[in-house]
Each structure stands twice: as structure tokens, then as C-alpha cells.
């Protein structure tokens, strides 16, 4: 939603040109399906699902409670965008509803970051956690937009399509660079006798695998831009799917590394 809103405001076209009816090519409906799936799957790790309605009881002191509230606000904003676009086509104020939805999504992202930045978990309590969460959202949002809505974006403005690809390439570079830096920091941590091992073994192999995927994805986007030209015709839709697959696979590897790095200090 954030990237589609950005593309809409920088487009020279009169409207957003995206599907407003049922189907995965409707960005608001796709986002709503994804966030709904995430909400349903979250019940799988509740100690007692019957206590879920009490999750909002501690908004004053719990980032988790605030995250749940933010999920609700983001979902409602998506419903608003979906209904408005579906029933009314592309009204002039639809872009502003999309801005509101994007802002709700950013608030949700910040709440998620705060949940995981814990002083007692040194691998997570660092600058890398917010950076990785933000760029995961940017990368996955971009490949979703380019994968499901590339033709709609291209109809807006060919230059917008190319600039989105440039943003993806730069974002992948940042993820790779910060990933290497964070790996060096992890290897200096004293995890204790029973803590994870970062400099060799399965963790290190997954790290190298992820870096290789990032380099491949970066190189693929760079080649696409060289072949088409920064302001050239957007005739590379077929290339978007392997790039999207590489990005999604490296993100899954990144989540595996994130949770595998866990160890706790103190009580």
C-alpha cells in the first residue's frame, strides 16, 4: 500500500488504473487478505486463545497490545480503501485514503519493531532490528506491487515503473550491507556455553546463502535496468517473477536467521 500510494502520487496519469473488483490484482484486497492471514495465524502461538479479547487491556504499558490495536486500525483502513475503490471507481479522494492506510501500516510496523527490541535479548536489541523490519516491508511491498500490479503501474507512467525498480535495487543493497555488518557484530557477542554459534555451522551457512540470494537479486535488477534503460520502455514483466522469488526466499532466510540468533540474558 505504501509503494502503490507513492506510485499514484508521482504518476502523471489521471487515475491509479488498478483493479478495484475481486481478485489478487486488487492491491487493497490483497493487502487485506495478507493481514487477515497474519492475524489468524497469530492465534497459533497464544497460550490461551480464549484470552485474546483481553489483549487490548494494557495499551498504556504493552507494545504488544498497541501492535494489536494498530493491526485493527490498518485493517479498517484497508476496508475503507477497498469499498471506496470498488463502489465508486477512482474518486479524487481515494489517494488520500490510501495515504491514511499507508500511515496506519507504518504505525503497525513501528509497533512490531518495539515488540522485538528487548534489552534482555542482545541480538535483537540493536539498530539492525528496526532496519531489517523496515527494509523487509519495503522489499516485500515492492515485489508484491511489481509482481501483481506491474501492468497497472506501467499504465500510470513508464518512468514510475523504472524508478520502482531502482528503489528495489538500492533497498537490496542496503539489506546486504547491513546484513554483513550485523553478522560481524553477532560474531563478537558472548552467548555463553549454550548460546547460538554465529561464525560457523548451520547459522553461518544460512547467512552465506542469504547473502548469495541478495547479490543475485541485486544483479538481476541491475541487468534489467541496463537492458531497458532508466527511462526506457517497461518490457521486462517476465523478469519480475524470478526476481520476486529471490527476494521472498532471502526474506525467509532472514527470518530464520533472526529467530535462530535468539538468546536471553538474565531472568
Describe the model.
This protein has 8 helices and no strands. The chain is mainly α and 267 residues long. The chain has 2 domains: 1-116, no CATH class; 121-267. The longest helix has 30 residues, at 158-187. 33% of the residues are buried.
Most strands sheet: none
N-to-C series of helices and strands:
HHHHHHHH
Number of DSSP helical runs: 8
Mean pLDDT: 83
Question: What count of domains describes the coordinates?
Answer: 2
Instruction: Tell me the total number of β-strands.
Output: 0
What percent of the residues sit in helical stretches (DSSP H or I)?
Answer: 55-70%
Computed structural class:
mainly alpha
CA(first)-CA(last) distance: 40 Å
Q: Nearest-angstrom radius of gyration? A: 20 Å
Q: Strand portion, in percent?
A: under 5%
Shape from CA axes? Answer: flat
This entry's quaternary arrangement is: single chain
User: Could you list the spans in which at least 5 consecutive residues all have pLDDT below 50?
Assistant: none
Using brief descriptors, characterize the structure shown.
267 residues; mainly alpha; 69% helix
Give a brief outline of the structure:
The protein is mainly α. It has helices at about 1-10, 25-40, 65-90, 95-115, 130-155, 160-185, 200-230, 235-260.
Q: What is the secondary structure topology, with strand pairs?
A:
Layout: H1 2-10, H2 27-42, H3 63-88, H4 94-116, H5 128-156, H6 158-187, H7 202-228, H8 237-260
Amino acid at each position: 500500500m505504501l509503494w502503490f500510494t507513492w506510485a499514484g502520487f508521482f504518476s502523471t496519469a489521471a487515475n491509479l488504473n488498478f483493479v478495484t473488483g475481486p481478485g489478487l490484482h486488487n492491491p487493497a484486497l490483497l493487502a487485506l487478505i495478507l493481514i487477515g492471514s497474519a492475524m489468524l495465524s497469530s492465534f497459533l502461538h497464544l497460550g490461551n486463545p480464549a484470552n485474546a479479547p483481553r489483549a487490548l487491556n494494557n495499551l498504556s504499558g504493552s507494545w504488544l497490545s498497541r501492535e494489536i490495536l494498530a493491526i485493527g486500525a490498518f485493517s479498517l483502513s484497508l476496508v475503507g480503501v477497498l469499498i471506496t475503490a470498488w463502489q465508486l471507481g477512482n474518486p479524487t479522494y481515494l489517494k488520500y485514503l490510501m495515504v491514511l492506510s499507508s500511515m496506519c501500516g507504518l504505525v503497525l510496523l513501528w509497533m512490531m519493531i518495539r515488540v522485538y527490541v528487548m534489552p534482555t535479548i542482545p541480538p535483537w536489541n540493536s539498530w539492525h532490528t528496526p532496519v531489517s523490519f523496515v527494509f523487509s516491508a519495503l522489499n516485500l511491498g515492492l515485489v508484491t506491487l511489481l509482481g501483481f500490479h506491474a501492468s497497472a503501474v506501467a499504465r500510470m507512467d513508464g518512468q514510475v515503473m523504472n524508478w520502482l525498480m531502482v528503489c528495489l535495487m538500492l533497498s537490496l543493497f542496503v539489506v546486504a550491507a547491513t546484513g554483513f555488518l550485523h553478522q560481524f557484530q553477532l560474531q563478537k557477542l558472548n552467548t555463553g556455553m549454550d548460546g547460538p554459534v554465529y561464525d560457523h555451522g548451520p547459522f553461518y551457512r544460512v547467512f552465506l546463502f542469504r547473502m548469495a540470494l541478495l547479490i543475485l537479486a541485486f544483479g538481476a535488477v541491475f541487468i534489467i535496468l541496463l537492458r531497458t534503460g532508466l527511462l526506457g520502455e517497461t518490457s521486462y514483466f517476465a523478469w519480475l517473477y524470478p526476481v520476486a522469488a529471490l527476494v521472498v526466499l532471502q526474506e525467509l532466510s532472514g527470518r530464520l536467521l533472526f529467530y535462530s540468533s535468539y538468546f536471553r540474558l538474565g531472568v
